[in-house]
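Reopening: structure tokens for the zinc ion complex, inputs below.
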Amino acid sequence: MDSKKQFLNPEFSPAFVDSPYVTQLCKITAGLYQHGWDERNGGNVSYRLLPEEVASYSGVHDVKRNLPIAFDASALKGQLYLVTGTGRYFKNVKDFPERDAGLVRIAEDGHSVDLLWGFNDGGQPTSEFPAHLMTHIQRQKQDANQRVVMHCHPTNLIAMSFTLPLESKLFSRLLWKMQAESVVVFPEGIGVIPYMTPGTNEIGQATAEAMADYRLVLWPQHGIFGAGDSMDETFGLIETAEKAALIYSTIQAQGGKFVNEITDQNLKDLCARFDITPNQDFIDGDSLIK
Ligand code: 13P
Ligand code: ZN
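Re-run output (same inputs, fresh job):
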């Protein structure tokens, strides 16, 4: 058989579980667990795949189940999402990807998804799937290459949400000033929404609204949502913000008094050097040195 026929013959198609997409999901969920940001079933990831990216794999061509979703996702009809399951432990995804994750296609009417692969013990997408899909809708308006939404529970960012006023400008400037890389990685800042009940359409709507202006949205007393073009980019956003929050926590443990700081002018110089436009509403403000 020539190689083209072999490629088209399902007997010779590689299994989707061996695709780079599932491999990336396994690596990223294991990495999030290793960081201590996804205890038990904490956290969830969704990854938009293009039909041509999955077409050559076996095991993804028929509908295994149809699962209802509780809001109108028709803006995403026909799109494919590799998504982690509700109640699944990130420490386990790498060993049981076909059980703890699934590939779903948004149905035509937008009120259900067709399961094409995975969740093989009867599982379902994450309880935060509405917030993920609402975020995908919003971010695709800003960026045609939008692919990944990632939610996790990073310790220091959550801790800051207990001790500081819940204001986007205040959080953005503090995180920018904790290390030189922050303003370069997230020049728009970070959005902060009020505390809301997880797993609801309401928190999804508030998150998606904030995602019009930010790729990082803090869920106070809970965790963070990140969005981006790739797994690495989205993970990198979250780990940069969390590293800044760790530095802030360490400063507080050292007594919390600022003697030196990255000034507003330092931030502007960084942006000029890396040809970046920071959020103009946030770039000027109070010094950390009192
Ligand atoms: P799921 O197990 O439904 O993904 O929920 C975890 C979580 O972090 C909720 O915010
Ligand atoms: Zn959570």
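The domain at 1-127 is CATH 3.40.225.10 (L-fuculose-1-phosphate Aldolase). The pocket of zinc ion (ligand 2) is lined by residues 42, 151, 153, 198, 222-223 (CB under 6 Å). Marking as resolved unless the reporter disagrees.
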